[in-house]
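Budget justification aside, the reviewers requested a transparent look at the raw inputs and outputs of the sequence design task funded under Objective 1. We therefore reproduce one unedited record. The lines immediately below are the structure tokens for a 198-residue chain.
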């Protein structure tokens, strides 16, 4: 399991240390363990990256383990994306990213508002995403641990809105958790993913 590039307490007061540590050492670790279990009897699959397996679920992954790879491989990859795009450093979007968000959403605030709306209204457990799809930036959501990669999209920013991501600090107040998220997004990581995806 990749270690985080910051301390569990580094994102306080926005994301609390206890939630960060449980989320990483218990939830993320469990997705990885169950993903490894799922592919353990298919050595040809272990030669491929988790992202490749998610991109080619239907063509590469045998039907009997497909749902497990979707759930646990998706959980592993989604959480990598999530944790890697957080920072305590108050990074602002760069000029290039501001221009792209303006072109596709009308501006940075308009993008945040639309993403917030998608994350707030997503029913049940899942993720809100900024993805590149058909060469366009789009806001999407997925249920459970489904990955944008399995839909042919490239995820640039993801927010986990499972209750385990916020319940200890925010209880049922998902909108407050989403507002806190905007305080800790690493826009440099988002820009790097955007540049690499084109
Ligand atoms: Mn989670």
């Amino acid at each position: 399991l990749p270690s985080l590039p910051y301390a569990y307490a580094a994102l306080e007061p926005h994301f609390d240390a206890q939630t960060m540590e449980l989320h990483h050492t218990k939830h993320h670790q469990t997705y990885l363990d169950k993903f490894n279990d799922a592919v353990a009897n298919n050595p040809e699959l272990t030669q491929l990256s988790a992202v490749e397996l998610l991109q080619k679920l239907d063509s590469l992954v045998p039907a009997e383990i497909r749902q497990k790879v979707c759930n646990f491989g998706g959980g592993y990859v989604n959480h990598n994306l999530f944790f890697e795009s957080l920072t305590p450093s108050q990074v602002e979007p760069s000029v290039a990213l501001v221009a792209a968000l303006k072109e596709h959403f009308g501006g940075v605030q308009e993008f945040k508002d639309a993403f917030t709306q998608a994350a707030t209204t997503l029913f049940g457990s899942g993720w809100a995403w900024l993805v590149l799809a058909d060469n366009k930036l789009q806001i999407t959501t997925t249920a459970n641990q489904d990955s944008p990669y399995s839909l042919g999209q490239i995820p640039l920013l993801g927010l986990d809105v499972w209750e385990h991501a916020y319940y200890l600090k925010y209880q049922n107040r998902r909108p407050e958790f989403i507002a806190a998220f905007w305080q800790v997004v690493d826009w440099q990581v988002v820009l790097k993913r955007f540049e690499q995806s084109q």
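Residues 23, 27, 79, 160, 162, 164-165 surround manganese (III) ion (CB under 6 Å). The beta strands are 126-133, 136-143, 154-160. Computational costs for records of this kind are itemized in the attached budget.
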